[in-house]
Amino acid sequence: MPCKGKTAGKALPLWPAMYLQQISVINFKNYAEAGLSFSQGVNALTGNNGAGKTNLLDAIHYLSLCKSYFNPIDSQQIKQGCDFFMISGVFDKGEQHDTVACGVKRNQKKQFKRNKKDYQRLADHIGLYPLVMISPYDISIIIEGSEERRKFIDNVISQTDNRYLDELIIYNKILANRNALLKKIAETGRYDAGLLEVLDEQLVASGNRIFEKRRAFMDEFTAIFAELYKYLTDEAEQVDLVYESQLLQTSFAELLIKTTEKDRVLERTTAGIHRDDLAFMVHGMPMKKFGSQGQQKSFLIALKLAQYTFLHRHTGFKPLLLLDDIFDKLDEHRITKLMQMVSNHDFGQVFITDTSTARVCQVFEKINVDVKLFEVEGGLVNA
Predict the structure, then answer these.
(1) Which end of the chain is more exposed for a tag (fewer CB within 10 A), N or C?
(2) 312 contacts 252 by C-beta, under 8 angstroms
(3) Is residue 260 a part of any domain in this protein?
(4) In degrees rounded to 5, what are phi and psi of residue 359?
(5) Which residues pair with 134 in a beta bridge?
(6) φ/ψ of residue 275, rounded to 5
(7) From the annotation, which residues make up the binding site for ATP?
(8) Which domain holds residue 85?
């Protein structure tokens, strides 16, 4: 179902070498079965709340990143009353066509295949089909604790460097071992200085590698973000994005020595890259407390579009861009600016959800861009 721009014969932008041709789902969330073929440009899923629009975006997210965007428990994505779900899709990467399939059965390990071959490690899949999703749930990045903001940084870097994901796993294992030792020391009263020193050396080595990658990432990312926010808001607001890490002032090894006694009292490691954070500021004040809903939404969109630009630069492919309920809490001017941006040559395949078909058509007619429409109702899709 096309939704045409105003000017007949207007050429579509030059789309990227990577896009999702089609997807099929079985027993996934509220879908018994569905199959969709997509445009290389803008695809819009419209329908009432609860119809299943966001579930289709989440299925696309699974194919790219091996997991749900919203819920880390795979078995909870299985349609009620069923024992498994399947998602499969075909990615076009120029002359290469890849079939990717994900299957989950209750109480069994998740299966993930590319061109019918199982992955030994899911980390090897991450970054092959880069993806950025913008959702109302992203507000947690601003209003929740530092863990949400670290997850954001880690997600972006992991899509460009799967060794980084391995390093995070190593660091967290060492951190868990160190915390377990601190608890044991508190329980038994026996201080094992030798073992603590070994764990400290391991934690410092791993933590420093992660810190250097995060710092290099933020140096590049902050500049990208600033330009995008200026564009979205016509430079109406002064915002700042600041990387905060204890390691910026003091070496990790020194930090662990200084906090040893504190760690023994609290029975956990209080210094390290697991305490890193991002500060979001508007006019010099914390965005969390002083930003309006519109400012917070614009900040998040700029953050995610900066992620898009970074991934494009470092993977060589224009990521899939998924915009879930994006028009909510944005004024007409910001909606138009955003859609103009994502519909031009700098962006590739786009997926949008909204409750109003008429609104989607109106927005894209205004900027003269063609859209392929899918109307969703109760787990059924009409294209």
Answers:
(1) N
(2) no
(3) no
(4) -65, -45
(5) 323
(6) -110, 5
(7) 47-54
(8) 1-130+317-383
Name the token pair of 288.
């969390």
pLDDT digits (tens, 9 = 90+) for 159-190: 999 899 999 999 999 999 999 999 999 999 88
Please give the Cα distance from 103 to 304 (Å, whole number): 28
Containing 380, the helix (H) or strand (E) segment is strand 380-382
The pLDDT of residue 365: 87
Binding-site annotation: residue ranges: 47-54
For 169, 210, 254, 258, the CA distances from 269, given in Å and listed in that order, are 17, 17, 13, 11
Q: What is the dihedral of CA 121, 127, 129, 134, to 10 degrees?
A: 120
Name the H helices within 144-192: 146-158, 162-188
**Span 277-334, pLDDT tens digits:** 999 999 899 999 998 888 888 899 999 999 999 999 998 889 999 999 887 767 777 7
190-229 pLDDT, tens digit each: 888 899 999 999 999 999 999 999 999 999 999 999 998 8
DSSP letters for 326-344: TTTT--HHHHHHHHHHHTS
Do the domain assignments include residue 259? Answer: no
- Check which CATH number belongs to the domain holding 330 and give it: 3.40.50.300
Distances in Å between the Cα of 45 and the Cα atoms of 79, 91, 136, 189, 301 are 20, 19, 16, 61, 19
Q: How many domains does the chain have?
A: 1
Who's near 143: CB < 8 A, 6+ residues apart? 288
- The residue with tokens 């990312």 is 221
Phi-psi region of 47 (alpha: psi -120 to 50; beta: other; left: phi over 0): left
CB of 352 closer than 8 Å to CB of 26: no
Residue 1 DSSP one-character state: -
pLDDT tens-place string over residues 19-42? 999 999 999 999 999 999 999 989
Alpha carbon distances (Å) from 237 to 140, 272, 281, 288: 22, 33, 10, 15
In a domain, 63, yes or no: yes
